[in-house]
Amino acid sequence: MLIYTSGLLAQGKRILFLGDSITDGNWGGGGVKSSSERNHWDQNHLFGSGFMYLSAAFYMGGYPEYKLEFFNRGISGNTLDDLSKRWQEDVLDIKPDVVSILIGTNDIAQFVQSEKKSFDYALWSQTYATLIQQTLEKYPDVRIVLCTPFVARGERVKDERYVSLVTKLSVEVRQLATAYGVTVVDFHALFAELENEHPRVASDYWLWDGVHPTAAAHQKMAELWRSVAGEYVTEHK
């Protein structure tokens, strides 16, 4: 049950979801358009169609008095470097109270498709750390939520290296969360648990091409996000 408590409202909180296509969900016209090029007027498509949309709908529908503002800033195909380039416009300029980040899958995809011999985890983590530091310095009270990346063997994940590389990247995300005292939503562990709990269900039931979640998976992701980070949305501002 959702309970409205007078005098303890999280009035005007701004909750930002940032990432790649998994967060994007074709919001505001989708594609690879920048955030400023997208449609911010059409309420039917403002949040896309994924776990971000489900999370926003849950809180906006359940807590109308809180006047919550949600922002989807996922862009399909993005890597961590891409996020870095748009950090000012799509994060700092929004002045968020909560920032949820899911990134990493495309970084590994680009590496696997390249001729590089090893992925530079140290550089990747340092880039991520710099973004976290910038955000905390600008907004000391901001709640940062780091989501771990995930994949499964499928149509887009045929190279055996994908799974092990993304698993290592998930470890890096957890370590960053510990280092900065921020919250981690472990989607990587979630999909491992779903496979163990439902052994008769093929992996493409959750990740239809090995990368992108199905409707069922987005629902599970939204449930996990709410259980781990939901208190940041409704706590007193």
Break the fold down into its secondary structure elements and pairings:
Layout: E1 14-19, H1 21-24, H2 51-62, E2 69-74, H3 80-85, H4 87-90, E3 98-102, H5 105-113, H6 121-138, E4 143-147, H7 161-180, E5 183-185, H8 187-197, H9 215-234
Parallel strand pairs: 1-2, 1-3, 3-4, 4-5
Helix pairs in contact: 2-9, 5-7, 6-7
What does this structure look like?
This protein is an alpha/beta fold. The chain has one domain (14-234): 3-Layer(aba) Sandwich (Rossmann fold). The protein contains nine helices and five strands; from the N terminus they run βααβααβααβαβαα. It has helices at 21-24, 51-62, 80-85, 87-90, 105-113, 121-138, 161-180, 187-197, 215-234; strands at residues 14-19, 69-74, 98-102, 143-147, 183-185. It has a five-stranded parallel beta sheet, with helices on both faces. α7 links the parallel β4 and β5 (183-185). α2 (51-62) packs across α9 and α6 packs parallel to α7 (161-180). The longest helix is centred in the last third of the chain and has 20 residues, at 161-180. The two termini are 22 Å apart.
Short description:
The chain has helices spanning 21-24, 51-62, 80-85, 87-90, 105-113, 121-138, 161-180, 187-197, 215-234, and strands at 14-19, 69-74, 98-102, 143-147, 183-185. The chain is α/β, with parallel strands linked by helices. The chain has a single domain (14-234), classed as 3-Layer(aba) Sandwich (Rossmann fold).
User: Helix content range of the residues, please?
Assistant: 40-55%
- Morphology: globular
Distance between the termini: 22 Å
- Radius of gyration based on Cα positions: 17 Å
Oligomer designation: single chain
* CATH homologous superfamily assignment: SGNH hydrolase
